[in-house]
Write the structure tokens for this entry.
Amino acid sequence: IRIQLASAHYKKGDHELAANMFEQLLTDYPKSKLRGSMLFQAGESRFRIKETVAARDHFADAYKISSQNPTLAESVTMRLGETQALTGQHKEAVKTYRDFLKRFAESKWLRNAQFGLGYALENNNKSQDAIVEYRKLYANLKKVDLWTVRARFQTGECYFNIQQYEQAIAEFVYIELNLNKYPGWQAKSVLEIGRVLLAQKKREDAIQRFKDVITRYSKEKSAIVARQYLDQLRSG
């Protein structure tokens, strides 16, 4: 009854109250067969109110419980990887996402986890390894979704970070020319081309690309950043 009541508060949107109730249940019933589920729901409740560290710790405890059912284990592992990444535990996130991809190959969150693995590697200063993982998301050119676009973009960022500028530009140009359903990401890509050109000491070319962002994607947030770059270049 107490679990049902806590779940009802969660569904109603009273996430802090739900979190407190689930955590009290964990204290009152430390050996419950439902402990994995209670830990997950406590984590979800904390996650909803952006208490990410507390959420991560609940997911980590749930992850350790080997007796949990496969459906719950899938959700727990996915959430653990996400919250590890959000709290800067990128090395741990790499391990968690690899485990997810190995155990849940048919999951509906497979592409989420594949991107998460690439992003965790990138943030763990392993850009080359990250590129390998990102490429798996756009190896099939017929399948285009948000993960395709984000993986292309982050591949460009990885090349930028390791100063392979021409490869970086190639990825950003691909998004600019071919992914018209995602104007926000096109705008970001053109902006990044400008930044790469600046790194290559190609000031005038960079200025032109920043102007392109403003004229072609005026409604996107990247246009604001492009104006800031132009202002800095003019004042410099």
Remarks:
- The radius of gyration is 22 Å.
